[in-house]
Every structure is written in C-alpha cells, then in structure tokens.
Amino acid sequence: MTTDLADNVETTQETDDGTSTSIGLAIADEPVLLPSTPSQPVPSLPTRPANYSASDNTAGSVPSSTSTSTRPIDNHYIDGPASSRNSRINSSSNLDSKKDKPAILEGDEKGMSRTDSRYSRLNRSLLLCAIAVALSSINYGWVIGSVNIPALVIEECSDGPETWTSGFPSCIPMSSIMWGLVVGLTPLGAWAGSMFSGVVADRFGRKRILIVNNAFFVAGALLSSTSTSIVQLGVGRFVSGIGCGVASNLVSTYNSEAATVRSRGFLGGFQQLMILVGLFLSQVVSIGLSAAPLWRVLFSISAGLAIFQTLVLFFVPESPKFLAKKGRMEESQAALQRLRTGLDISLEFEDLVAVLDTRAANAAISPPTLWQVLTGKTEVDLRHLVFCVLFLMMSQQWSGAKGVMFYSTEILSSTFHLTTSEKQHIPSIAQLLTLGIGAIGAIAVIVGMNILDKAGRRTVLIVSSLSTSICAALIVIGSKLDLGPLVATAMYLFNLVFQSGAGFIPYLSASELLPYSVLGSISGLAASVNCLTLFIVSFTFPILDKALGSYLFTPFIATNFITFLFGVFLMPEAKGKPVSQVVAEYQGPIHLVSAVSPRCRKKTPPLPVV
User: Fold this and answer.
1) What is the dihedral sign for C-alpha 514, 516, 518, 523?
2) Percent share of the chain, pLDDT over 70
3) Considering only CA atoms, which of 399, 388, 590 is closest in space to residue 509?
4) Residue 526: Cβ within 10 Å count
C-alpha cells in the first residue's frame, strides 16, 4: 500500500529514563486484515490532526482541547476509530491518569456518581451470568469425568458377573481398546460440534444456541444411561461430545464478549475452571454411583444439568456485541447494562458501536481466505501467530492430562496391585485418589488465573510445561520402581502444575493474538486440532498402557518438554497488549522470539492490520 498509514497508529518513543511511552493514535482495538491483493481498493483512514504534537498526547496524559481531539492511548482500554473519538473529548478528562483507578463520571439524574464501566473489574452481575453460561462447561466436565471411576465396573464387570435387570445389563464387557474407542468418541463428537457452532451462533446468537445445545446433552445422557450394547453407549458418548464441542466454543465466546478489560484474564480461564469443577463433581458422585447398575444414574445426571441450565439461561442477557452487530442497538445497550449493574456504560457502548462501524465500513472488502492466512499471503504476515495458536491448542491435549482424567482409576488400581475383591470394594483406594486428583485440578486453575496477569502468559507456560514434564518423569520412575505412593504423588503434582498454566492458557491464545478478521476461521481450525488430538490421546492411551506398561508416561515427558521449548523460543507475550501491538511485534513467518521483554527494548511502531 502506498498510503501513509504510520501516522494513524500507536507509536512509541523513548524518554530520558530509558522507558518507552505510547504516542499517536490507534485505528481500532481489533485490527481488520485484508488479503495482499494489489487490485483491491484500500479504504481511506483517518489522518492525524495537522496541529498534533507528540508531547500533547503521551501515555498517561490528557490532551488539551486546543491541540488535538482525541483521547490518550490507555493501557487498559484501546479506543475505537478516531472519527468516533471526537465526541468523547470531555469524557477523557475524567480519567485518573496518575493512578490505576476507575474513572468517575459526573452524578447521574439521581445525583449518584457512577464508575466508568470500561475500567471496572469483575462485578456481581457479570460473574453470575458467566457462571450461568459456564454450566455448559460443568456439563462438559461431567461428561468426560463420569466414565473414570466406574470404568472397571462397566468394561470388566468388576462388580460381579453380567446380569440383566428390567431389560438392562449390569455391565457392558469389552476390551480395553474398545473402551478407549468409546471414551474417545466424546472428543470426536466435540470436534464435530466445534465445526458448526461458530457459524450458527453468529447467525442466531450465543445464548440461543447454548439453549438448543442442551438437547445434545439430554439425548446423549439418555442414550448412555439406557445403553444395552457397545454401539449404543458409543453413540451416546458421541452425541454428548457434540454438546461438549459447542459448549467449548460458545462459553469462551460469550465470556470474552461480555468481559470488561480488567476481567478478561479471569474469565479467559473460567471455562477451564468450570470444566474441572464438573469433572470433580462427577467423581464425587461416582463414589456412590459407580456400582452396577447405578452407573446409569450417574450418566443420566448430565441431562438434569442441561435442563437446569436451559431454565437459567432465560434470565441471562444475550451478548451485547452480537446484538449490536445485528443492529439491535437498544437491546445491546440494555444487555450491556445488565452485565454492568451500577456502572455507567455510555462510553463503553459508544466504543463498541465505533468498532463495529469500522468493521462494517470494511465489510465490502473480501476478508482473507484461510489458505491466504496460513500461507502468509496477507498484508501483514500472521503465520507465526497462527502457528502459536494451533500449537497451544494441540499441546493442551498431548500433555497426557486428559489421560489422567479418563484413566487414573485404572492406572492407580494397577499401580497398587488391587485384587478383584479390592476393586469391588467401593470406594477403593484408586477411586479415592482419583477424587483428589480432580479436586487439585480445580484449585490449580484458580491459582493460575490469579498469577497470569502478574507473571505473564509466556512465563507461566514455561514454568507449567517444564514442571509437567518433570512430574511425568517421576510417574515413570515410581512405576518402574513399583512405588505406588510416589506414582500417586507425582500424578497429583502433574495435574496441579499443568492446570495452573498450560491447561487454560490455550483458551486465551486466539482472542489475544489474532485480529478479529481471521479470528473465526482460525478459532474453528484450532478447536478442530484440539478435539482431534484429544480423540487420538483418549483412544491410544489404553493401547499405550498395554504396550509400555511402567513407561506409559514416557511419551508425555517428551511432549511437555517440547511445549516448554516452544514457550522459551516461540511463545508471544500478550500481557496487557492490544491485538494491534501483538501483531506488530510478532508478525512474519515462524521465527524465534527474543528472550528480552518488549518493555526492555525499543518498540517498533505497530503496523496497521487493515
């Protein structure tokens, strides 16, 4: 492009003390990408005022009304297009630029002062709505966790010989390979659900599709709980998996669109937390419902959760961003206000509309195809960032953590050499230890969510993946030396260090690293990679168990160490950065990332990703 775009983006300059400050204007908080085809017209962009001076708009200062008509660049919120900011000059003077505090606006019609919603943290109404939406994630965790403790009862009839009562068998005997396939059909169904969920949610809404999606949970639960054959049980697991795939996509989408800037990190890990809560609850209940034929009741509870969420969602607002995108502005503003109870949303809503206006203005220009993005044939090369998103989603599943969630009861039963009578005693030591593994995973996510915005994504991933690799090695050593307590302790630590970082960071990666114009296509591809990797791990885990024995976790030593190397040499740091800055710093083909923090080196001006 020949148009001078550098003047329209946020730039940096070094001060006397060696630090960098932001100057200039940002085109939008979410850049839009065009394919690099010279024949396509480039939309005109707002230009910097003629009387603009860098000294008038350094970071943390308030511009005077005589020098420029824009708000300052803010580390906590990135403006919409310059044309929409001109009407907000007076509002910018309410920002407390010296301290990291919410901006206080003038009193409302009742004489009450209210905080600017853009700078608010997690509030009660937003949290309740996030929990209501995340009931789908709890159901996801329930589905994948409910097969763990009763596994031996179902596949090996460990509770006694197969008997039929009222037309239902007490167990469904099968080989370990066939059981791995049945378990693996859930992530395969999740892959199918993730493929279509984004498209239908963009058309009909996040809330509506979450309600409809509960039909998959109900149908899958009914098929599984009434199964009389391997085929029926497998179909039930697949149908439930579709519900899991849709939930995995839409829960994160809704929470990211509903979140404030300061609650983005917490709600980003909220989905993984709720999945682990569901998994833990399923294991608690499994202690009392794993015997034959009570495991059928265990499977049916998923339907009850789905029906309960369906009723609760009628009291939850639709995503404000979705409503605004559909032109339903009054509904969008009302929904945003419900998510920001007690806060002033006027400026936040204005910014939301401004960003959508920018996208609408560029809608006539064809967005880049998936192939153009993957091959770097776009105006700004995103190959490194796309690779990072795909790798993170794959590494989450090849870590071996899901193998622990699915098969820990069988692994620990073998480790402690439980006899048939000991396996029939419920709860067995293996089942009780499995219960603790689920609990520590949920605690770990809470810890990770609280340190993520302090330590940074890259640091947390590096520490988490290396620690997971070490724990996998300890599991192998304990298994080889026949030290049951060491194996159990290492499995606890394995789940703790994985879930505190590498377990939930992948869910944040796409929205923090990629421009909105490619987010949909790459997110769909990433979800597919994630689910297919999970299917492979779930299916092959029992096979590896038979083939490797004490060395079962050896492959996961390698896979987690590869993730560690990725974090050291390739992982971008998105902490506190707008997408435009991340794209500017890490654009290009796959390359090594400097170990020096961008804050410690001179920044290059972020390129506009139009």
Assistant:
1) positive
2) 77
3) 388
4) 23
The predicted-structure confidence for 417-450, as pLDDT tens digits, reads as follows 888 777 777 778 888 888 888 888 888 988 888 8
pLDDT (0 to 100) of residue 97 = 39
Buried b (16+ CB within 10 A) or exposed e, 352-381: bbbbbbbeeebeebebbeeebbbebebbbb
pLDDT band at 3 (very low <50, low <70, confident <90, very high): very low
Helices (H), 481-599: 484-499, 505-513, 516-548, 554-569, 579-586
Residues 501-538: pLDDT tens digits? Answer: 998 899 888 888 988 778 777 877 888 888 889 889 88
Please provide the DSSP assignment of 428-459 as one string: -HHHHHHHHHHHHHHHHHHHHHHHHHHH-HHH
Q: What's at 193, amino acid-wise?
A: G
CA distance 100 to 59: 13
The bridge status of strand 164-165 relative to strand 343-344 is unpaired
On whether the CB atoms of residues 461 and 500 are closer than 8 A, the answer is no
Neighbours of 33 (CB within 10 A): 23
The structure's pTM equals: 0.73
pLDDT digits (tens, 9 = 90+) for 89-140: 333 334 343 344 444 444 444 444 357 887 787 888 999 999 999 999 999 9
From residue 453, alpha-carbon distances to 266, 440, 458, 576 in Å are: 9, 21, 11, 8
What pairing do the DSSP bridges indicate for beta strands 115-116 and 343-344?
Answer: parallel
Q: In this structure, are residues 312 and 132 in contact, taking their beta carbons and an 8 Å threshold?
A: yes
Those residues whose C-beta lies under 8 Å from the C-beta of residue 199, and which sit 6 or more positions away, are none
Percent helix / strand / coil, the chain, rounded to 5: 65, 5, 35
Model pLDDT for residues 164-199, shown as the tens digit of each residue: 988 899 999 998 889 989 988 999 999 999 888 888
Average pLDDT over residues 65-72: 36
| CA distance linking residue 477 with residue 468, whole number of Å | 14
Nearby residues of 76 by Cβ (< 8 Å), 6 or more positions away: 100, 118, 119, 261, 262
Contacts of 305 (CB under 8 A, 6+ apart): 135, 138, 139, 142, 217
Residues 129, 229: Cα–Cα separation, whole Å = 39
Q: DSSP for 490-521, please give it.
A: HHHHHHHHHHTTTTTHHHHHHHHHS-HHHHHH
Tracing tokens 């097969």 back to the chain, one arrives at 147
End-to-end CA distance of the chain: 11
User: By mean pLDDT, which of 219-228, 231-240, 322-331 is the weakest?
Assistant: 322-331
The H-or-E segment that residue 24 falls in is strand 20-24
pLDDT for position 572: 94
32 or 185: which leads in pLDDT: 185
Give CB contacts under 8 A, 24+ apart, made by 199-205: 201/249, 201/250, 201/253, 202/322, 202/520, 205/318, 205/319, 205/322, 205/323
Query: Which amino acid makes up residue 579?
Result: V
